[in-house]
Specification:
single chain; seven-stranded mixed sheet; four-stranded antiparallel sheet; globular; Aminopeptidase; alpha+beta
């Protein structure tokens, strides 16, 4: 396997491999992979049947589940990854393995891996129409926040993200970072870089965006892209905390935009919570309809 650092020019090829199977998890989305590629030092290698993605942190390597057709030889792919790691004195670790992928590995490579639940990486998935309508008793509090924003800012507007508002959104992301501690929190700095990477390459990544304005200024924005045939992956959702209801409005309007342009979409994947308690509670407060459970697969010691 000949690895190279993942670049934007590789995303078309990455997209063809991702399209070979139906996808459900955020790390199986082209934009998600690219947005965090710099942070994770993501490299890719291509063989006849597979595309491999590996990460490097402080000299330690890990892989995603290899990308290929369902009928491809998974045992052979696992052996290639294991041999690559062994040649560097390490055992193979696979990140963010879904339940389906776990089952495939257990069949293809019996007794090779131990699987540990990775709760911080589980994706939150919601019925798209429920978010668009903010319906149901469980959503009553969200609707109150939304109505508060609409009443306080009667001039609010929602726009599709593009060249005409690119600079305003980028400045809002800068301001958000300054207000909420990117200088002190390494995780927020990493997120800021991922958002900027997504903004700068939104066309090549096939990203759809929405922008919320109040009193003429950007109050919130959201970026998302397709994930499989019936899902959309929301990569970014930013709003100023002191504008009560801004998050609820951008959430609703973004899903409405997705459904208007992609009526086949049934599910919204709002990605994981990275183990951050505040983010976890925020995502749970929307009452997910399902979770995409994931594991870390570690090669057993001989």
């Amino acid at each position: 396997m000949n690895f190279k650092l993942l670049g934007i020019d590789d995303c078309a090829l990455l997209g063809t491999y991702l399209a070979r199977r139906e996808r459900t998890a955020c790390q199986e989305n082209m934009a998600t992979i690219f947005n965090w590629g710099s942070r994770l030092q993501t490299h890719l290698a291509v063989t006849e049947e597979w595309l491999f993605l590996r990460h490097e942190r402080e000299g330690n390597y890990s892989f995603y589940f290899p990308l290929g057709a369902k009928e491809s030889d998974l045992a052979a792919a696992a052996n290639e990854m294991r041999a690559w790691c062994h040649s560097r004195g390490q055992s193979l670790t696979l990140w963010s393995v879904t339940t389906e992928q776990k089952n495939e590995l257990e069949i293809a490579c019996p007794g090779v891996f131990d699987f540990m639940p990775a709760r911080n990486s589980w994706d939150y998935v919601y019925e798209a129409k429920r978010l668009a309508e903010v319906r149901g008793n469980k959503m009553h509090g969200k609707k109150n926040h939304l109505n508060h924003f609409i009443k306080k800012y009667p001039d609010w507007q929602f726009e599709v993200f593009g060249e005409e508002n690119f600079d305003a959104v980028s400045r809002m992301n800068d301001e958000w970072c300054l207000r909420y501690g990117c200088g002190e929190q390494e995780s927020l700095r990493a997120e800021y870089c991922a958002v900027q990477r997504c903004l700068a390459n939104y066309r090549a990544l096939g990203v759809l965006g929405g922008v919320l304005r109040a009193e003429g200024a950007v109050a919130a924005f959201s970026l998302a892209s397709p994930l499989g045939r019936e899902s959309f992956d929301v990569h970014v959702e930013k709003a100023f905390h002191d504008m009560q209801g801004a998050y609820q409005v951008i959430n609703r309007e973004m899903v409405r935009l997705i459904l208007r342009l992609h009526p086949e979409v049934k599910w919204i994947n709002r990605e994981d919570d990275a183990g951050e308690e505040g983010l976890r509670q925020a995502k749970l407060s929307y009452h997910p309809d399902m979770m995409v459970e994931k594991y870390v697969a570690k090669e057993r010691d001989k």
